[in-house]
Amino acid sequence: MAASGVLGSPTSSSPTAAMQSSPPRSPIQSQQQHYHNQQHHHQQPRPTGLRFPSLASEGFQHRDRRWVVRAATVPDSRRPSTDQMLVYVPPHPLIKHWISVLRNELSPPPIFKSAMAELGRYLIYEASRDWLSTVTGEVQTPCGVADVEFIDPRDPVRVIPILRAGLVLVEHIASVLPAAQTYHIGFERDEITLKPRLYLNKLPESFPDNARILVADPMLATGGTMVATIDLLKERNVDHRLIRVVSAVAAPPALKLLGERFPGLRVYTGIIDPSLNEKGFIVPGLGDAGDRSFGT
Q1: What is the third-level CATH fold of 60-133+141-294?
Q2: What letter does residue 272 receive in the DSSP assignment?
Q3: Both ends of the chain: CA-CA distance in Å?
Q4: Closest by alpha carbon to 266, among 82, 86, 128?
Q5: Which of 75, 118, 256, 273 is 20 to 30 Å apart from 86, CA to CA?
Q6: So, what pathway does this thing act in (predicted)?
Q7: CA 191 and chain centroid, separation
């Protein structure tokens, strides 16, 4: 299949031939090619104060040993104890691609929103990899009998996007977890104190004892909003070890706080950036995910 099916991918191995034969580009195509050229020029990552896992699925431990980053799911025998939070950064090229589209300040709202939704699809898929219980049985195929596994419907899945940007991250939830029920919660941030303020709470009074709960927030910056959300879930007798957090970008302050408060939590993120600026935004990050998704 041609590589042009992926946003921003080169379509010719010969730049000269492409210049001679390519039709005039639309503004969006020109923006995409400009972005591709930027990425090629800046392809070497800058060093940071954090050591990140390689694509060989090896993790690392921080000095306080309260949270661990891994590039992929690892066997049970190699997992840390439940007193550590696990942070997964799946090494999938499509995840890297959509993160790159999100980072580009020239990506207009429709492209940004589409990229966030696609990223969410892959992160949710990764988060559900070893999370859902199954039941075994047999089915008759056209050619014989096969042993099979189905998702166990007795273990319900609940999805909680944190408004408003979290809505986009779970836009394709039905394609991965079609039986999941969705509840909404909304926080806004005080721009001076950077503390979250709850303005919408549509959580039920309680959750089933064995419910798997996925919480989605594109940006884990200070961690205050996610801590407040998980606290509300724990008030409803939810075991935080059954919660999976999905984010586009995370920063060390949020991961440190979550690791201190909720050992055994699992976080799935597209990338970990090194720091926050004075306004509490992740650097280099991708800006305000809500504003960029909805064009406000």
Answers
A1: Rossmann fold (3.40.50)
A2: E
A3: 37
A4: 86
A5: 118
A6: Pyrimidine metabolism; UMP biosynthesis via salvage pathway; UMP from uracil: step 1/1
A7: 24
